[in-house]
Amino acid sequence: RWVTTMAQISKEYASALFELARETKNEAAYLQALQQIEREFSENEAYLDILESPAIAFADREQMLTTAFGGRVPEQVLSFLLLLCQRGRIRIFGECVREYEQQLDLQTSHVTARVTSAAPLSDAQKTALLEKLETISGRSVDAQYALDEALIGGFVVQMDDLCIDASIRRQLKEVKEAMVK
């Protein structure tokens, strides 16, 4: 029996949108619009709850999206949002954006790495890390940096399907698991 995961669903939706973008040579414009929408969703977390609510008629949710983004984003990106909303999949929007970014990066021999560290990295550390990631991936790498003190020390890198967890939190977890055995 075949089970479809949310990651697979996100990839299918993102692939369809990416193909539309390629046909019209608007890959970067679509990405910019997707990222803009994602920022607005993250600034207004209740927005997703409203868009997902079956208590609100789809026509009303459609009107909200059209009012918020109509004329501000390409028509196909708005249609993509409406489709996700209509099919009850608006919660996977962020994952669709990640998938779209990956497809664009693959097309351009470019990859984005999300680097989360416990403390800010120095310029020298950033340079060394980028060089290592470029060697691993064989592509040019741009990095987006974030802080998470819960890592205690070290960093976590997410790039395509690769996750490098060099955090103290992970090391402590491994020690704890070894002690329990």
What does it look like?
By secondary structure, this protein is an alpha+beta fold. Helices cover 60% and strands 15% of the residues. It contains eight helices and four strands, in the order H-H-H-H-H-H-E-H-E-E-E-H. It has helices at residues 6-23, 27-43, 46-52, 58-69, 75-86, 93-107, 123-137, 168-180; strands at residues 110-117, 140-147, 154-159, 162-167. A four-stranded mixed beta sheet has the order 2-1-3-4, with helices on both faces. Helix 7 links the parallel strand 1 (110-117) and strand 2 (140-147). Helix 4 runs antiparallel to helix 5. The longest helix is centred in the N-terminal third of the chain and has 18 residues, at 6-23. The two termini are 34 Å apart. The model has no long low-confidence stretch (mean pLDDT 91).
Keywords:
181 residues, alpha+beta, four-stranded mixed sheet, 4 strands, 60% helix, globular
* Series of H and E elements: HHHHHHEHEEEH
Portion in helices:
55-70%
| Cα shape | globular
Structural classification: alpha+beta
Low-confidence stretches: none
How is the biggest beta sheet arranged? 4 strands, mixed
Strands of the largest sheet, in order across it?
2-1-3-4
Distance between the termini: 34 Å
A few lines on this structure:
Strand 1, helix 7 (about 125-135) and strand 2 form a beta-alpha-beta unit.
Topology (SSEs and partners):
Layout: H1 6-23, H2 27-43, H3 46-52, H4 58-69, H5 75-86, H6 93-107, E1 110-117, H7 123-137, E2 140-147, E3 154-159, E4 162-167, H8 168-180
Parallel strand pairs: 1-2
Antiparallel strand pairs: 1-3, 3-4
Helix pairs in contact: 1-6, 2-6, 4-5
